[in-house]
What we know:
The complex is a heterodimer.
Chain A: H1 8-11, H2 32-52, E1 56-57, H3 78-86, E2 95-102, E3 122-130, H4 135-149, E4 157-161, H5 166-173, E5 181-183, E6 192-194, E7 201-210, E8 217-227, E9 232-239, H6 241-249, H7 268-286, H8 296-314, H9 319-333, H10 342-358, H11 364-378
Parallel strand pairs in A: 1-2, 4-5
Antiparallel strand pairs in A: 2-3, 3-9, 4-7, 6-7, 7-8, 8-9
Chain B: E1 18-22, H1 33-45, E2 49-52, H2 67-79, E3 85-88, H3 104-109, E4 113-116, H4 120-131, E5 135-137, H5 151-162, E6 167-168, E7 174-175, E8 190-191, E9 196-199, E10 201-211, H6 212-216, E11 230-235, H7 242-253, E12 261-267, H8 277-285, E13 295-299, E14 310-312, E15 315-321, E16 324-331
Parallel strand pairs in B: 1-2, 1-3, 3-4, 4-5, 10-11, 11-12, 12-13
Antiparallel strand pairs in B: 5-14, 6-16, 7-8, 9-13, 10-15, 15-16
Amino acid sequence: MNNIENPNFVAKKDLHEKTGERNIYGKEKFSPEKAKEHVESIIDDFKDYYSSLGYREENPVLISSGVDSTVRFVGSQISVLKPYFLEKRVPTPGIFMRQDCVRTKNINRFLDEDFMPAWGSYFPNMGAIAPPERIFEGCQNTFDFFEKKLQIDPENILIRISSTDQDLIDACRKRYGDRNLEIDSRDISYYRHKLGIDGVRGRNCNIALRNSDGEGFSDVGNLIIIENSESKLCLEMSIGPSTSLKQIFGLDHVQDCNPVVGLESVDKKFRRKFEDSIITSTVLMREGLRPFGQHNRNRILKRYIQSMSYFRSRCAIKTEELLKIISDFENREFPKSDINVSGVMVEFLEAFENEIVSKKDLTEEQQKIKSALLLLNKK
Amino acid sequence: MNSIRNTIKPLKIKKGSHIRIVAPARSMGILSNDSRKAAIDRLEKFGFKLSFGKHVEEVDEFNSSSIESRIEDIHDAFDDNNVDAILTVIGGYNSNQLLQYIDYDLIARNPKIICGFSDITSLSNAILAKTGMITYLGPHFSSWAMKHGLDYSIDNFIKCCMEENAYQLLSSSEWSDDPWYIDQEKREFIPNEGYWDLNHGHAVGRIVGGHVRCLNALQGTEYWPMLDDSILILEEDEEIKPAHFDRQLQSLIHQSDFKGVQGILIGRFQKETKMDRNLLEKIINTKKELQNIPIVANVDVGHTTPQAIMPIGGSMEIIVEDGNAKILIIEH
């Protein structure tokens, strides 16, 4: 039934570099030019796999679509899939989808030089839900995806789970022995999910893959039982393509899956945040969002654009250079698209910079950006 | 694309700001007492303090005044630290007489909002070319005398001249082409059909242009604003007919830097011009240079009322797709 004999992920041999040292997965870091192909390849594998199991595909929505009123941006596929389990109409065997997401927690600490985010604000995600009577099978489907489709050896898989979630433990124990289970290693909040719906919660275990040097594990996905006080509503399966690729290929950072070429040599304390501001601004502006207006989404985008001003100032990058960096990123990340927002992004950036230099009543954050800009102009 | 470089952005004004009225084209002397009183009342009620150039009442054979008088008033307005912004009295025909006498360094040292339209196009684009300062095509002093139908203009004046944020330029709900200054109560308002999306596409660039013949009179001079990476604003008055507009547009296309035009906004034509959408589309379609850039027409710019404000030297994004045109004023 499963078409797992010819996984895209390993069949596309041209994606794999032939030289250099291989890691425990037999892989080595890929170049920025190959990043997009790898991301799309693992997503295709996911879609092929769940499709072959009979899951139905759901179309993705725009991150800034406002489809879920409980969040400003779509931060998980669950925003799209909520109606299915709330109305108890999750089809058998389930639904899967790819959903691009933005979580904006990073922006609140972007200008804090001690803050080094492990994740980018933007990430593509792969997710599925199965009806409550298929929780056990859904878990096995997910494990199969890792083992058979991605060809991950079980010894490189770790399940972080709470001892209070016996149903999840049962599903995992059927498949894995004790050495694959890490029970109660985290605070209970780590195993609990909020969905922004009164009375509905999630209990999760996280799937981690061994770091590519063999030491330690990092989370790449999770299995979540969503329920209310009366009953279980569904099983959600969520897998991060970039977190998975980071582990398998031994990447330095998840953002190497959406590489911003040209910032490799800037100060380490700025690089990933600078990349994040470029990636997130580009993705949101390509959806048509613009950094002005009263809506929270527009305001947040404005903060990403503003932070770009700060980072370019601190890293002494001229707007012309920044424009090229953004444009190259956009062309590499969205090669088949006619849309190009790099120019308008820089227009907004310059408008903000002109505004901030002459404006008097500035927030603390704007003052910090202005100081950085003035310092740059003196150089 | 090459975004704005070395832009001088005048400080925004606020209620309580001091506005100097100058007459670089026709004189204030041609305004009726009722009109000038109504304009003063409107602006003062809005919260502005007003003062007038020394020579605004002078009237010569051309309903204007001497070059010296007009230059002195402009220089005084920029030089006076108590003046926050400048409004022109009304349009006319001769503000390009002033261009070689203007002290552009004085303007660059004392950047201020200067707002007017029509013949003021010459002044606006020349100041941009010589200083990099953003100027504003929008209501004259005399426009503020309009009793009915000015709300859209004022809303846009606030957004463009009094606030910092970027904004979307929406079309007015209704427009008028009547001689409102003759009878303020006998007005004809026409429902606005919205923007005409003549060519699809996406463009971002620096805003230049205005009244087409005034702009074209700058061709080949040091006052030409340069069209590299520009969004071109084109509007005309009732003197022009479709064939004349075609000729003016063709003349623009012949400029060596026209290839830098990223998109075009065309202001609503007055009824007397006899221009309609079909004719305009036909004119556009005859010009291969225009085929791959977004073009939006029937914009509230120019000689019908109400008016949007165009920040000349500012920046704009145009998105035209699926029968929908979106205009975003970014830098202003």
